[in-house]
């Protein structure tokens, strides 16, 4: 019986092999310990192949829990068990078996990355609120997967029962053979509820698809928990969990039809792709032997492989079906996808020259001929299985893999491609939840911005119950990526105690944020993915340090690290005496240089740029008046396209600088005289003066309707009291209100999205009131201010209800802004 079980296993008859192994192991009389271990491993692997992870875990635990001595190929059982445990949500235990596998397999270190991810799985779940996933009504009780756009509808693969009444059963798991089906018009999907396609006699209908703000796992289509019922598979062995629950039925609520009588045969027809003018199709098929058509099996087993075929649409039918030239009886080829120009075909194969399992390959179509296939390389392919590729209109590649670290089973990944070479040009990215789950997720199609599309997954009931889901992106493409910032003294290498710094997007200084390290000079931030940042650190007695950082190639689940070192300020030594003419010449040159870098403005030329307060863009057509307070002499100019102005000044006199433009608030400030004419050396000898208070309008103009964020006006969680570091910014607002006595503003305060919405609305009103009280105590009339609590209604990032965010991200939402309601002119 054991020999029969082995034969069925080698012939891919996993459903029958499970029955034979289970029967043989009930009474293992006459079997050696080594034979028993081997049989149990094969049984566990057979359960894994039919996606019955509960029984696979049971058998793996039985055999590996006894700590057998494994050799050769059997060592892989530790890896397979780790993957099964991951799919069953037991991540800590999965890491233990990954570690055992790592210790025994020096050449295969993929477990190290899986261990990192399993230790920080929240990293791939923090962006779950950005996507809405809906079950659609074309699904059946059988497998339905791998949709592809065709004309106005979808072509997809399905194992639903043939209307002819002929039962064709696949030996792998006793499931039905696959054919191509067609949904003629996507409009038929409409906005149906996610439950509309479900009709059961023994199961209650699943709830409607949740809003994206719900916590991951609170809906029927995300990974199951320990309390969920275990219903896996549809047909097959009594031993396979749930496979004999034949009273379960799921009928499509939206009609579909067989795609083509000439393409659908008595064998498997699998994933396909179309030339973009619809003239040709490339599809997957196996033939001649009903047992076969599976990737990754040994040669000389009598199994016919999957092959790729091409057909042309002529006279309202698909004709001239022919094999692609690189097919072979020694390996499989399938899962095709074409680039937007129809010149590059990507497909899956276990042909020689790969990295292990199944790999993704490419071939070019030139003048009706296919070039020799080329492997996409190690950035895409692993020792595991890479399958189901799809290329979007920008040439970027999506695929599924169990070899790259993921949430369990097959996960969907993305990689940018070089359109000229057709090869990878960046780093592989896991799409994260909810597009991925701890089950199999694959067969994605989408647009270049991933705003909408379809995926395939068996997440609902596991096993071979593959279904097609529609998704819509509501937020960012990816979640934030973690960064640990450390700030040290460059000389002593000691960390600073609670040092404040700022950071901003390199391409947009308007995004500036601030943060404070802990008492060991460290802080963990979570930054928006795929961006470049500037970090600005200013500390008394130290040189300002601006450090750039990019997280475009950073890990999604492992925090990056940025060390910033501050150097102490160095006083310049006095210069040796020179001849008077040399001194004058040197002073003139030094003075010009200082005007570019010294905040004391000792140059006789006063320069500046007027920008819009809302987006910091230069403003043309602004009248600038520079009024000498010694003799009332007025200099005027109108700014050009770059918003710049320039005046001569007397260093012994004060000046008033005014900026005026229609529909903007008028702003003025005092440019103080330089108390004494100083040489370069004397400037360095003097202590650095304290910076003047200035105002929010020193270099900016604002108009009615502008909403201006007040920097550093943050609050502790659940508190409305103004923090100490906010006082200086509010003093600037007082100064601005005094310079613009006819301006009326609205103070708007926000909370983060945690907690009860009504409580947050009340808390934000208290925060707005607190700011108004501060301004009133400092001389601003209450009639010029209106306090408005915004609650949690306008977060500045993706931290909605149920989304996992860092404390720094939540703090960004606890902010105060002011909106200019009116600017009356006298």
Overview of the molecule:
Helices cover 18% and strands 28% of the residues. It is an alpha+beta fold and 826 residues long. The chain folds into four domains: 128-473, 5 Propeller (Tachylectin-2, Chain A); 481-566, Sandwich (Immunoglobulin-like), CATH 2.60.40; 592-701, Immunoglobulins (Immunoglobulin-like), CATH 2.60.40.10; 707-823, 2-Layer Sandwich (60s Ribosomal Protein L30, Chain: A), CATH 3.30.1330. The strands form 13 sheets. Strands 12, 13, 14, 15 and 16 form a five-stranded antiparallel sheet that branches. Strands 1-25-24-23 form a four-stranded antiparallel sheet, with no helix packed on it. α3 (33-49) packs antiparallel against α4 (53-64) and α4 packs across α5. The chain is elongated, with a radius of gyration of 34 Å.
Notable characteristics:
single chain, about 850 residues, alpha+beta, Tachylectin-2, Chain A, Immunoglobulin-like, 4 domains, 5-stranded antiparallel sheet, 12 helices, about 20% helix, elongated
The CATH class assignment of the largest domain is Mainly Beta
- How does the helix and strand content classify structurally? alpha+beta
* Ends apart, CA distance between termini: 101 Å
Number of strands: 44
Which residues sit in consecutive blocks of at least 5 with pLDDT less than 50? 163-174, 192-236, 289-294, 296-302, 574-578, 582-601, 676-698
Number of domains: 4
> What overall form do the CA principal axes indicate?
elongated
């Amino acid at each position: 019986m054991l020999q029969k079980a082995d034969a069925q296993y080698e012939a891919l008859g996993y459903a029958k092999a499970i029955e034979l192994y289970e029967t043989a192991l009930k009474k293992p009389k006459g079997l050696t310990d080594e034979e028993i271990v081997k049989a149990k491993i094969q049984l566990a692997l057979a359960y894994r192949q039919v996606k019955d992870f509960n029984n696979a875990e049971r058998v793996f635990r039985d055999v590996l829990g006894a700590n057998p001595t494994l050799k050769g190929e059997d060592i892989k059982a530790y890896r397979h068990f780790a993957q099964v445990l991951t799919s069953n949500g037991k991540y800590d235990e999965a890491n233990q078996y990954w570690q055992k596998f790592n210790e025994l397999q020096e050449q295969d270190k993929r477990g190290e990355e899986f261990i990192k991810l399993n230790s920080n799985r929240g990293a791939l779940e923090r962006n779950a609120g950005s996507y809405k996933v809906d079950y659609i009504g074309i699904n059946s009780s059988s497998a339905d997967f791998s949709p592809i756009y065709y004309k106005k509808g979808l072509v997809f693969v399905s194992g639903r029962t043939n209307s002819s009444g002929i039962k064709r059963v696949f030996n792998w798991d006793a499931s039905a053979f696959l054919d191509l089906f067609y949904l003629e018009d996507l409009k038929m999907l409409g906005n149906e509820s996610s439950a509309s396609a479900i009709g059961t006699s023994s199961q209650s209908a699943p709830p409607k698809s949740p809003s994206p703000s719900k916590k991951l796992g609170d809906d029927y289509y995300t990974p199951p928990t320990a309390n969920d019922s275990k219903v896996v598979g549809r047909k097959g062995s009594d031993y396979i969990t749930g496979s004999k629950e034949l009273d379960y039925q799921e009928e499509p609520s939206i009609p579909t039809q067989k795609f083509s009588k000439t393409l659908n045969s008595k064998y498997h027809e699998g994933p396909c792709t179309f030339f973009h003018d619809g003239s040709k199709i490339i599809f997957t098929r196996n033939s001649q032997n009903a047992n076969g058509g599976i990737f990754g099996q040994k040669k000389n087993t009598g199994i016919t492989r999957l092959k790729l075929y091409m057909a042309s649409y002529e006279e309202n039918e698909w004709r001239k079906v022919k094999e692609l030239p690189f097919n072979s009886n020694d390996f499989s080829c399938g899962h095709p996808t074409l680039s937007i120009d129809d010149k590059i075909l990507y497909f899956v194969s276990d042909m020689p020259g790969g990295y292990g399992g199944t790999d993704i390959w490419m071939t070019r179509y030139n003048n009706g001929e296919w070039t020799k296939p080329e492997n996409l390389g190690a950035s895409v392919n692993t020792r595991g299985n890479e399958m189901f590729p799809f290329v979007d209109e920008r040439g970027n590649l999506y695929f599924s893999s169990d070899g790259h670290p993921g949430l369990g089973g097959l996960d969907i990944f993305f990689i940018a491609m070089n359109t000229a070479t057709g090869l990878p040009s960046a780093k592989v990215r896991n799409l994260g939840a909810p597009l991925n789950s701890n089950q199999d997720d694959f067969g994605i199609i989408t647009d270049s911005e991933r705003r909408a599309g379809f995926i395939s997954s068996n997440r609902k009931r596991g096993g071979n119950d593959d279904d097609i889901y529609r998704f819509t992106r509501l937020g960012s493409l990816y979640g934030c990526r973690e960064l640990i910032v450390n700030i040290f003294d460059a000389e002593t290498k000691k960390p600073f105690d609670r040092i404040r710094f700022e950071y901003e997007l390199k391409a947009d200084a308007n995004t500036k944020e601030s943060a404070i390290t802990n008492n060991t000079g460290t802080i963990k931030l979570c930054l928006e993915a795929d961006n470049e940042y500037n970090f600005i650190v200013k500390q008394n007695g130290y040189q300002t340090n601006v450090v750039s950082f990019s997280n475009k190639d950073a890990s999604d689940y492992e925090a990056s690290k940025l060390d910033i070192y501050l150097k102490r300020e160095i006083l310049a030594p006095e210069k040796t005496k020179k001849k008077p003419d040399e001194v004058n010449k040197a002073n003139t040159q030094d003075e010009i240089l200082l005007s570019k870098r010294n905040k004391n403005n000792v140059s006789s030329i006063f320069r500046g740029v007027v920008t819009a307060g809302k987006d910091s863009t230069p403003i043309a057509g602004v009248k600038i008046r520079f009024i000498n307070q010694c003799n009332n002499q007025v200099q005027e100019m109108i700014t050009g396209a770059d918003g710049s102005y320039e005046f001569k000044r007397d260093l012994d006199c004060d000046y008033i600088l005014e900026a005026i433009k229609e529909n903007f608030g008028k702003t003025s400030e005092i440019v103080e005289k330089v108390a004494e004419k100083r040489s370069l050396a004397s400037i360095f000898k003097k202590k650095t003066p304290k910076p003047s208070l200035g105002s929010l309008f020193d270099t900016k103009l604002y108009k009615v309707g502008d909403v201006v964020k007040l920097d550093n006006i943050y609050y502790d969680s659940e508190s409305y009291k103004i923090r100490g570091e906010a006082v200086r910014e509010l003093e600037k607002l007082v100064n601005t209100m005094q310079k613009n006595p006819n301006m009326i503003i609205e103070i708007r305060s926000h909370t983060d999205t945690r907690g009860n919405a009504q409580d947050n609305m009340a808390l934000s009103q208290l925060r707005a009131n607190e700011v108004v009280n501060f301004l009133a105590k400092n001389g601003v009339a209450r009639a010029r201010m209106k306090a408005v609590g915004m609650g949690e209604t306008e977060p500045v990032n993706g931290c909605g209800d149920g989304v996992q965010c860092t404390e720094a991200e939540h703090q960004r939402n606890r902010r105060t802004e002011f909106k200019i309601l009116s600017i009356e002119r006298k």
